[in-house]
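Question thread 4412

I'm putting together a teaching handout and wanted feedback from people who do this every day. The idea is simple: show students a protein as raw sequence, then show them the structure tokens that encode its fold, then repeat with a second protein so they can compare. Below is the first pair exactly as I plan to print it.
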Amino acid sequence: MRQTVMALRQGEHMHEREHPGEVTVHVLHGLVRLVAEPDSRDGLPGDVLVMPERRHRVEAVQECAILFTTAR
């Protein structure tokens, strides 16, 4: 398992990617949006978003901090 805390400014995003295995984003602060075309969903503090097994990206709707966890 690998965990990384990240902070993004409003309007920034993580580049679109795919990850093997289970990947989650735990929202620590702010508002984020998970985009996996054609779907998207928002996450608030305390939410845990499960990344789909297709190309996706995380966008900062507001300044945010997230805990990104990858299980291999």
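The second pair follows. I'd like the answer to focus on this one:
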Amino acid sequence: MRRIRTDQSERGVVAPITAFLMVFLLGMAAFAVDVGSMYSEHAQLQNGADAAAIAIAQYCSNQPAGTCSADQTAYAAQFANGNTLDSHGQAIVATVTGSTVDVTVQAQDPSASNHFSLVFARALGIQTADIRASAQAKWGPLSSGGAFPLAISDSCYNLSSASQSAEVQKISYKPGGTCTGPSGTQIPGGWGWLAQSSPCYASTQLGSNNIGSDPGNNPPFLCQDVLQGWEDTILSGGDVKVTFPVFDDATNQGKNGTFHIIGYATFKIWGWKFGNGSPYEFRNKTSDPNMTSSLACAGGQDRCVIGQFVKYQTIDSAGSGGGTDLGTENIGLSK
């Protein structure tokens, strides 16, 4: 039997190769484990920064203009901690400027001097990582929106900036009109209905002559389900709050009519009469709950909506900035 001879010069080669591979494997482990942990930590911090920015914007928007403290770091801290799995998030700064709040949070590992402590990367001499996340939120009157296709004259708006709600009122279009402004609450041939971008929905924005009229005395197209939903909500004890565009002028007539939108106001609806029979009329008679003779709108050709303007906040549902402050504000993340 022939023996296999080995080269004695190759002895000891395995050890350095193994050492090299160990460094490589540790590096890969550091990348896979530590980088994955860092990514997860940043995602948690981002949630905290976003939540803090929205919460501070909501809080400040409810304060009188210019009275919200510029430094909201302490308030932001609870959201930075509350949105991390280890409760080790720290708010570095939360600053309010005008109607904007900027929030920055970082990982807070007490054993790592307010940094994120690494595990496998320690073998490579990397002990910690500085992980931060930032968010900005703004608040202000809406500049655009979309909802039930009805516009309301600014002469009907009566919400005091110092109160949460106005008196209950009837906004009537037929017969005659209530709270009539210089150009009236209706366009000849129509009574406030808007051209719809989809069934029972109108997209609107601030400005002149860009919101068309839908003429006629008939109720909006395919609004049965929406109105039935309003009715069901009220009968179950809930509130129906609808944000309407508010106009200060109307031009032309019929289908060629347009509205000049100056802002958006939210109306808590008590009852309505947009046509005859359910669901086009609801709690519009004197005998209905909370109705009076001055609020009733029961004639065959009567057209009205009954309710009160209320303060209201939306979150990321429409554009903000530029509109007249009518008690409805949008709060949203801007970066």
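Top answer:
Good format. For the second protein you could add a caption like this: The chain has two domains: 16-138, 144-333. The chain has three helices and 16 strands.
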